[in-house]
Amino acid sequence: MNQHNERLYRKLTQTSNLKFNSSTQKYSIDIPPLANIGYDTIGCHANSVHRNKTALVFEDSDRSITEFSFFELNERAIRLAKGLTKLGITAGDTIAIHTGQRPETAIAHIATYYLGGIALTLSQLYGPDTIEHIFNHSGCKVLITDDAAWTPLRKFRKRFKSLNHCIVTPTASGTEILFSEVLSDDSIGFQPIKTKANDPALLMYTSGSTGMPKGMLHAHKIIHAYYPTLSMFFNLELSKNDQVFWTPADWAWVGGLLDLALPAWQAGQTVVASQHRFDASWALDFMSRHKVTHAFMTPTALKRLAEIPDPRKDHSLNLKVVCTGGESLPSEVVRWAKNDLGIVCNEFYGLTEFNHMVGNCEALYPIVPGSMGKSLPGRTIAIINENGVVQNDGVIGEIASWKPDEPSLFLGYWGQSKMPESMTTGNWLRSGDLAFRDSDGYFWYQGRNDDLIKSSGYRIGPAEVEDTLIRHPLVAEAAVVGKPDTDRGNIVFAFIRVTKNTEKTDELKKKLQDYVKNNLAFYKYPREIEFIDSFPLTSSGKIKRKTLRERISQK
After folding, report:
1. Is the distance from CB of 305 to CB of 280 less than 8 angstroms?
2. What is the CA 161 to chain-centroid distance, rounded?
């Protein structure tokens, strides 16, 4: 056993469910046969020594504070589960959760899992086009939302054809139901459904390189599959006593929910939350007020923080560790985090479909600025070519995970009976990302090998942006690609052919940008637009996106 493995064996296996087999010299992650995200995070602490410990601190827009103990969160989740049962919700039903970073989100998730239901996460950044697609594709009948996020969508409700029950907090109108009225009077007599590790639990719609967003279905096992690697990303301090966790990332996405909120509660820690839009100065004040010790932030958020000189001068920070992922982290930001902010910054890499493939843990091995880190224990990661052949160190290829060893593999895409062939080559799960591994075992990201755009930690599919643009009456044709950007990793760049006799003006560009913001999602709008008279086409009539990307690079 080498020195690196000895450290992992000695430290990580003592604080997580990672197991080491001395005969095979391999790690595995222990997944219990019965698992339930609700019980395994909040529920297991509700009647333990942690029952009165603060699980959630919510800071409202007026800075008023509401706190919930593990017992209180669990009790409200049971009351909600009983109320949802009265509405006819049963095991296997999907419940859409659209409440952002609020206590109702945590309560709704736990209640859904207790019912044996499937929590469908909806970002409050989504516009009506995206919401319509998700509801009509998933067939979801129940929505839990808050009035501020629902108000601009209310007029589009008829487009969400499967929606039967709309539960709103803190106010409701018409046939909508108040969240507080769904809560049962008490939690007596409710028995959560016993779920298995591979039972479906979590549905997240995320963009791909083609078509509209796909629903990725994860099982209850996901939090157990993530726990050892998150222990590493939080520098082996995830289970250390009295830590405070926070993320500016939306709880509708993997980064906010699975990489911070749920594992922190799984470890019995306090999570602080706010609906405030991320701002670097505000974030430092917020972390100082709440004595945040551990955080997950996207590289874009860290770049914003790095613009503030001497961040500890005017802020009494308890911050010790930040983990980050979603896009490549510039090496200069890694150095700033260590030297100026005085923290450990552990970067990691993975996909929503199968996550935590590569990452850093400063407590176990040195961080090399610019590198994504090393392959993580409990899975087998390699660089492969198009035929699935493992490449030598230093050779660029596609990052891949060995399917039999991948504990976090999703159950599949909603409505599809099997995994797309494009995701596999033999037993290798393909990531779509290019990298190389150096002789010390560190992986170095090189970019995408398809058209998916990764911007500020978001996944943006060109097809969905194009679909919205083409709906505009002045757009005849559109093609969207990613343009490299030092701040966001990539930005959305749209080439547009307008209808006949339409003037190509800056005013029209602004109107098209606003059209995407209002109908699809704010973060998906094209930050740059170029009008074009015709598109380069392949022999089969497809737009040559590679040629368009080359055109951008030549400017």
Report:
1. yes
2. 26
Please state, as a whole number, how many other Cβ atoms lie within 10 Å of the Cβ of residue 136.
14
C-beta separation of 89 from 108 below 8 A: no
- Report the distance separating Cα 202 and Cα 217, nearest Å: 6
**SS3 readout for 15-26:** HCCEEEECCCCE
Q: Is the pLDDT of residue 149 over 70?
A: yes
CA angle 452, 206, 160 (to 5 degrees): 130
Is residue 117 within a helix (H) or strand (E), and if so which, with residue range?
none
Q: Give CA angle at 429 (427, 431), nearest 5°.
A: 160
Token reading at 164: 């039967």
Domain ranges of the chain: 57-220, 453-553
- Is it the case that residue 477 has pLDDT exceeding 50? yes
Rg of the chain taking only CA atoms, in angstroms: 23
State pTM to two decimals: 0.87
How many angstroms separate the Cα of 227 from the Cα of each of 195, 200, 236?
A: 19, 18, 11
Write phi, then psi, for 266 (nearest 5 degrees).
Answer: -60, -35
- Return the ∠ at Cα 199 (arms to 195 and 202), rounded to 5°: 105
CATH number of 453-553: 3.30.300.30
Q: At CA 452, angle to CA 450 and CA 455, rounded to 5?
A: 135
Going by C-alpha positions, the residue among 269, 268, 223 that lies closest to residue 246 is: 269
Q: Does domain 57-220 have CATH number 3.30.70.1060?
A: no
The helix or strand, by DSSP H or E, that contains position 272, with its residue range, turns out to be strand 270-274
β-pairing, 142-146 with 424-425? unpaired
User: Any idea of the CA torsion for 404, 407, 413, 419, to the nearest 10 degrees?
Assistant: -10
Residues 6+ apart with CB under 8 A from 539: none
Check: CB of residue 155 under 8 Å from CB of residue 130.
Answer: no
Backbone angles phi, psi at 216, to 5 degrees: -100, 125
Task: Supply 13's token pair.
Answer: 């296996």
Give backbone dihedrals phi and psi of 469, rounded to 5 degrees, phi first.
-60, -40
Outline where DSSP puts E strands in 420-532: 424-425, 428-437, 442-448, 453-455, 458-460, 475-485, 489-498, 528-531
Q: What is the pLDDT of residues 323-365, one digit of tens each?
A: 999 877 878 888 899 999 999 999 999 999 999 999 999 999 9
**How many other C-beta atoms lie within 10 A of the C-beta of residue 183?**
21
Structure tokens at 319: 């911050």
Q: Distances from the Cα of 449 to the Cαs of 213, 300, 446, 479, in angstroms?
A: 19, 22, 9, 18
Q: Which of 515, 527, 514 is nearest to 488 (CA)?
A: 527
Query: 274-288: per-residue pLDDT in tens?
Result: 999 999 999 999 999
User: Residues with Cβ < 8 Å from 14, sequence gap 6 or more?
Assistant: none
End-to-end CA distance of the chain: 52
